[in-house]
Amino acid sequence: MSFHRVNPAVKPRERWPGKTVFCGQEHHPGRLAASDFTVCNEIGVKIAGTRFDHTLFHCVLTYSNVESVSLCFSESFEALSARRQWCVIRGSARNQTIA
């Protein structure tokens, strides 16, 4: 097995000429959601002069593209479960198709 170092100065199109390949994705209602926690402590948010350490939770229902961003203070299972449920409730309130 041989490994080749990729020259970052060469654009990807020049490295691998040819057709662009797209992989299709099928999204079904009620099956998938994508979620992520983002720790925002380093941005230096201050409220009334006091540092405000916080984390944002972002959730997207992949079929309907309903998204929700909410504030939480830890990356716990409780935060994940509650915030994901909130995203589903918001989606159904908007009359989106959520099975």
Describe the protein:
There is one protein chain. The chain has a domain of 66 residues. It is built from 2 helices and 5 strands; from the N terminus they run αβββββα. The radius of gyration is 20 Å and the shape is flat. The longest helix is centred in the C-terminal third of the chain and has 17 residues. The chain starts with 11 loop residues before the first helix and ends in a 6-residue tail after the last helix. A hairpin with a 2-residue loop joins strand 2 and strand 3. By secondary structure, the protein is of the alpha+beta class.
What brief labels describe this structure?
single chain; 99 residues; alpha+beta; 3-stranded antiparallel sheet; two-stranded antiparallel sheet; 2 helices; 25% strand; flat
What is this structure, in a nutshell?
The protein is α+β, with helices and mostly antiparallel strands.
User: Strand percentage, roughly?
Assistant: 25-35%
> In one word, what is the shape?
flat
State the strand order across the main sheet.
1-4-5
Order of helices and strands: HEEEEEH
- Number of beta strands: 5
Structural class by secondary-structure content: alpha+beta
Sketch the major β-sheet. 3 strands, antiparallel
| Multimeric organization | single chain
Uncertain spans: none
- How many angstroms does the end-to-end distance come to? 47 Å
What is the tally of helical segments? 2
Relative helix content: 10-25%
Average pLDDT, all residues: 76
Our Rg estimate from Cα atoms comes to 20 Å
Write the layout of secondary structure elements.
Layout: H1 12-15, E1 33-39, E2 46-47, E3 50-51, E4 55-61, E5 66-72, H2 77-93
